[in-house]
Amino acid sequence: MTEHFVRGQGPGLLLAHGAGGGVTANFGPLLDDLSRTHTVVGADYPAAGGSLDELADGLVKTAVDAGVEKFTVLGYSLGTAVAVRVATRHPDRVTGLILTAGFARPDARMELALNVWAHLLEGDRTLLAKFLMLTAVSEPFLASLSPDQLAGAVAGLASSVPEGTAKQVELVRNVDTRAELASIAVPALVIATTLDALVPPRHSRELADGIPGAELVEIASGHGITDEAPDAWLTAIRKGLR
Asked: How far apart are CA 141 and CA 63, in angstroms?
C-alpha cells in the first residue's frame, strides 16, 4: 500500500476506494464525520498494481499495523470487490460490510466502458475526463452545472488521474466475486446508486441478493456519489456501521 490514512477513535472502519480514485478523492467529504465515532483507516492502492487478494491483504495489514484488529469495511466501486475479498480472506477481522456503487463482476456494458477508459488513459486526459463525466455523473447533476463549473470539473478530473489507474481498470475487468457472496456471514449493507450509468444499480442488487441477509438502500445519484449526494451517502453509511 502507498500513503495511508488513520484518523479518529472508536470501532474500526476500513476504507476501500474505487479504480482511478483514492481515499481522499472517494471518501473526502465523509472523513471528518466518520472519524468522530470510528477509527477510520484507509490506503491508496499501490501504483504498481496488484491482484484483488493482494489489495485486500494490503488493506488489512494497514489496519492491523495501525492497531485496528477488527473493522467494518466500507467499499466503493472496485472497493466493493476488495471489501468482499477482505471478508472472505479475513473473516475473523470483519464485523460488517458497506458496499456502495459496486458489482460482483463487470457485464458487457461495463466492459465496453472499461475498454474505452483504458484506451483514453493512453492519450488525451481531457477527453478521458469528458468520458468519465458523461458516464460517472448523473444527468440531473450535469444539468445543474454552469458552463464554467463543467469546464472546471473536467479540468480538475483530467489533472488528477492517479498513477496506477490503468492497472486498476484492468483489475476491474477481471473481478468476479459471485462465488464468494454466499459465504459472507457478517451484516452487509448494499448502497445502490440509481442514476449510475457506469455501474448500473442492478449490480448492487446482485450483490444484495447474493449476500445472506444483506440490506439494500437506494440513493438517487450517479457513480460519483461523493460529489452528488454526500449527505445521503453518509446517512446510509451510518445505518450500516457497527
From this structure: 35
